[in-house]
Design a protein that fits this description.
Blueprint: H1 2-28, E1 33-49, E2 52-67, H2 85-113, E3 115-118, E4 127-130, H3 135-139, E5 146-150, E6 153-154, H4 158-167, E7 174-180, E8 183-189, E9 201-203, E10 209-212, H5 217-220, E11 228-232, E12 235-236, H6 240-250, E13 255-261, E14 264-270, E15 273-274, E16 281-282, E17 285-287, E18 291-294, H7 298-325, H8 336-349, H9 351-369, H10 377-390, H11 396-426
Antiparallel strand pairs: 1-2, 3-18, 4-9, 5-6, 5-7, 7-8, 10-17, 11-12, 11-13, 13-14, 15-16
Helix pairs in contact: 1-2, 1-8, 1-9, 2-7, 2-9, 2-10, 7-9, 8-9
Length: about 425
């Protein structure tokens, strides 16, 4: 039920803001708005205010604004059909524009409210661990390397590294400059993150317990937050990833941990539990990470919101192009079920993660609606542009075929992504 409520709130806000963009843009150009609807299908609630009927309908997978003179040519200055094409284009663009605006405002709000972030994000990117089968491993990055550049972008902190990786997440080639033993070294590889286990260069973390999962193997033997793991089966561990490696090598066999708590030392024997999904042995602990508060003043927060929305839009467009060219599998597409899953999981983490997820989905909704397919906003914009180029409107017959083709494409696409979501869930995966 929590997932359903989170989905309804998320999609309701996004649809309302999207349709508000069309509504206000139509009002700006003097077009009469007959219906403002959140959802499709049977009407659950309606109220007429002025000349507009406001509705809430049963199917919350979209919405619409019905404009006077939208479906037929009406000789009236308040009719949509009487407006020049440039105004029609702006009215169609109003929905996606408002989704972009919403994303900027939500990201800006998150930056102003602030959050606890790992202290290391502001520190120099000295590599403490290289993940197996990662881009970093394939590049030949080693522990102790200081990262200077990623794909020609200068980095001075782990925050810069995160930003550079995000910008190049769909890249099929990586070049990195590092300092190793006092010398600058250039590394490169032709590969993509989609075929690897992420970028994989991570900071050093101490082998100190930050959280213990209730009823986990570590919990059952009395391991507590703040405990420092010094040795595993008599072998010294130098940091958190050294501890993880030792536990994975043990599989499900008992391991003896030398634990420091305050000034006392104690040995604890624990049997790791094999995770059913990953097949990896787990103790049920996560590392302690020192955090600091990150909070921006209003102007900087707004600029940060603009930048994050721009970068996310750019990445979404790159992903869309990769889908078209075959560089990205269509199995990565998610539909309503995937959105509900993301909404529910983010809501369980708190209001701020939920707002962040709303901003993310808002950008995706804007990009999707700008795809030049019939019945989408991008299809309408394309239609009006073509009419401007030919200097006369298309025939009613052509527009009828255009709309029917659009509905057919959207129905097939919706069916595919819903089936994709179901198969992902049945397969034990997540979006």
């Amino acid at each position: 039920m929590e997932y359903v409520l989170a989905f309804l709130v998320l999609i309701g806000v996004l649809i309302w803001f999207h349709e508000l963009g069309h509504f206000l843009m139509a009002k700006l150009f003097g077009v009469r708005v007959d219906i403002f609807s959140i959802g499709f299908g049977p009407v659950l609630f309606s109220k007429k205010v002025g000349e507009t009927e406001y509705r809430v309908s049963a199917l919350p997978l979209g919405g619409f604004v019905k404009l006077y003179g939208e479906e037929e040519v009406v000789q009236d200055k308040r009719a949509f059909s009487s407006k020049p094409n440039w105004q029609k284009i702006l009215i169609a663009f109003g929905g996606p524009l408002f989704n972009f605006i919403l994303a900027v405002l939500l990201f800006a709000f998150l930056a102003m409210v602030g959050k606890q972030v790992p202290k290391y994000v502001y520190e120099k990117p000295v590599v403490g661990h290289v993940a197996e089968n990662s881009i970093a491993q394939k590049l030949g990055i080693r522990e102790g390397d200081l990262i200077l550049e990623i794909n020609s972008k200068r980095v001075q902190s782990w925050k810069d590294v995160e930003s550079a990786v995000f910008e190049n997440i769909l890249s099929k080639g990586w070049s990195v400059k590092v300092i190793r033993d006092g010398r600058e070294i250039n590394l490169s590889v032709r590969d993509s993150i989609s075929r690897s286990s992420g970028f994989g260069a991570e900071p050093w973390l101490p082998a100190v317990v930050g959280r213990v999962v209730e009823n986990s193997p570590a919990f059952q033997v009395g391991i507590q937050r703040g405990d420092k793991i010094l040795k595993v089966n008599g072998r010294e561990v130098k940091g958190w990833y050294d501890l993880v490696k030792a536990i994975r090598e043990s599989r499900d066999k008992p391991v003896v941990l030398l634990v420091q708590r305050g000034d006392s030392l104690e040995e604890k024997t624990v049997i790791p539990k094999i995770d059913q999904k990953t097949g990896l042995p787990l103790l049920g602990i996560s590392p302690y990470v020192e955090t600091v508060e990150s909070k921006e003043p209003p102007l900087q927060a707004f600029l940060d919101g603009v930048h994050r929305t721009y970068m996310l839009s750019l990445l979404s467009l790159k992903a869309l192009w990769s889908l078209i060219t075959g560089g990205l599998s269509i199995k990565t597409l998610g539909g309503p079920i995937a959105i509900a899953q993301l909404a529910g999981e983010s809501a369980q983490q708190g209001i701020l993660p939920f707002i962040g997820m709303m901003a993310f989905i808002s950008v995706q909704l804007a990009i999707f609606n700008l795809i030049p397919l019939p019945i989408l906003d991008g299809g309408l914009i394309l239609l009006f542009l073509m009419e401007s180029m030919r200097r006369k409107p298309f025939s009613p017959k052509f527009k009828e075929v255009w709309v029917k083709a659009g509905y057919a494409i959207i129905i097939v696409l919706a069916g595919f992504v819903i089936l994709n979501d179901i198969l992902r869930i049945l397969g034990g995966g997540r979006f």
